[in-house]
Amino acid sequence: MKLQRTTLILIILMLGLGGFVYFHEFYWKTQQEEIKNKKQQIFSFQADDVQSLTVKTKNNTIILERNKNSERPKWRMTSPQQVPANDAIVSYLMDLLVKGESDAAKQPLRERTISSSVNQLGEFGLTPPQATIDIKLKNQQNHQLLLGKSDFNNRFLYAQVDPKPKPDGNVDVLLVSKDFGNAVNRELSEWQEIPNQSESTPLPSLNLPTPPKK
Questions:
Q1: How far is CA 61 from the centre of its chain?
Q2: Domain that holds residue 35
Q3: pTM of this prediction?
Q4: How far apart are alpha carbons 22 and 13 in whole angstroms?
Q5: Are residues 95 and 149 in the same domain?
Q6: How many domains does the chain have?
Q7: Please, are residues 44 and 55 in contact by the beta-carbon 8 Å criterion?
Q8: Same domain, 10 and 109
Q9: What is the pLDDT along the chain (214 residues), one digit of tens a residue?
Q10: Are 161 and 177 in the same domain?
Q11: Shared-domain flag, residues 21 and 80
Q12: Is 119 in a helix, a strand, or coil?
């Protein structure tokens, strides 16, 4: 009887140890990975949450609003012209905002950002920024992304997300994909919908001979 009780206690201890190992190896690590991936993202909103975008560069200020009247195009340019927007161009930028990550995937989390004083932002090309993206969500929340110059390896762009000083007076500078530069530095015509030539250009008339009367 005593041996059976000892065996039962050992089984209970082994089950408890197995549960602890499972929790640590699977559940806890999974949760930490999800948190880490979430921290790597530049923004936490989804594409459908965005109501409007304002893209400011040295050459243009483009205001884009989600089209409420029809599914195509999904976006309209409201300034400097009121025309249908190029959905492919806007979607490219939107993918970067929603799915884009900082350099956290390639560096330890503590090196993901650079803590800088406000007076040093000029060294990163952020005063003034090379481009500014203002984002308005459907819930009336606003976000902002400032894009600076390339880093010394010419692999990333320096950037600020929703810039505001920290309690110590410094600000955070991120490293983001250079694709952001390609996404915003465009001619005005590129932001506009490309007309369908087959619909906008009438086909030439054919002068067929009139068949003789019988």
A1: 19
A2: 1-40
A3: 0.70
A4: 14
A5: yes
A6: 2
A7: no
A8: no
A9: 555 667 777 777 777 776 655 555 554 444 444 434 444 688 999 999 999 999 999 999 999 999 887 667 889 999 999 999 999 999 999 999 998 776 644 443 333 578 889 999 999 999 999 999 999 999 999 999 999 999 988 989 999 999 888 888 899 999 999 999 999 999 999 999 987 643 444 455 445 556 666 5
A10: yes
A11: no
A12: helix
